[in-house]
Structures are given as C-alpha cells and as structure tokens.
Write a structure and sequence with these properties.
Length: 115
C-alpha cells in the first residue's frame, strides 16, 4: 500500500512520491485498487478502510448485575454522507455513532474477496 499524492482522472493514473516500492512516479488505474480511509482505527491501532470486515463487541449492563457481551461481524461502508458498519446483530443507531466497546479489523475485500 502506498500513499497517493494526486489523482489524474483524465489520464487515469495516480501520482506517488518515492517510497519503499516506487520512486516518484505515476501509476495507471489498471494497476491499482484505491482504498478509502475512514479516519477510524481499530483497537490495535490499525487503520479502518471502506470494505474492511470487523469484529464488533458490545457490553450490555444488566439490571440484575449480570453483564452480557455480544459479538458480531460487520462490513464498513459509506452511506448517506457517513461511515457505517453493516451488521446483522446491532441496531442502525449504534452503527452510525460507532459506539462499540471493541472493534478489530479481521480482513478486507481487497486482500480477500470472499469476505
């Protein structure tokens, strides 16, 4: 993965500065997969990107003193101007405000299309 300095949509290429893989150069769209960073990091400090698959954990405090921990997996997507995580178990409001007790990236669609 490299940081992109510029995107030329007319010439269909990106500009990258010198790094461990390339010198200063332009790379055509047909050789790359652009990934959108969400601005979030998981519990291990790993950047979270669109299409990442996450393990989500939420702790619920019960009135009777018994705590309940629920886990599910979800996929990061852009929706109506913000990042959400699609999950079967957790409600939509939790997905919009990212109020999970734990979030860990387990993979992404770019490295494993089966996710």
């Amino acid at each position: 993965m490299v940081d992109v300095n510029g995107i030329n949509f007319i010439g269909e290429e990106i500009e990258v500065f010198e790094n461990e893989f390339y010198g200063d150069c332009n790379i055509g769209f047909n050789y790359i997969e652009l990934m959108q960073y969400t601005g979030f990091k998981d519990d291990n400090g790993k950047d979270i990107y669109e299409g990442d698959k996450l393990i989500l954990t939420v702790e619920f405090k019960e009135i009777d003193g018994m705590d309940e921990v629920q886990c599910d997996t979800g996929t990061v997507e852009w929706y109506e101007g913000g990042w959400i995580v699609y999950s079967d178990k957790f409600s939509d409001d939790r997905l919009y405000d990212w109020s999970f007790d734990s979030v860990v990236v387990i993979g992404n669609i770019h490295e494993n299309s089966e996710l």
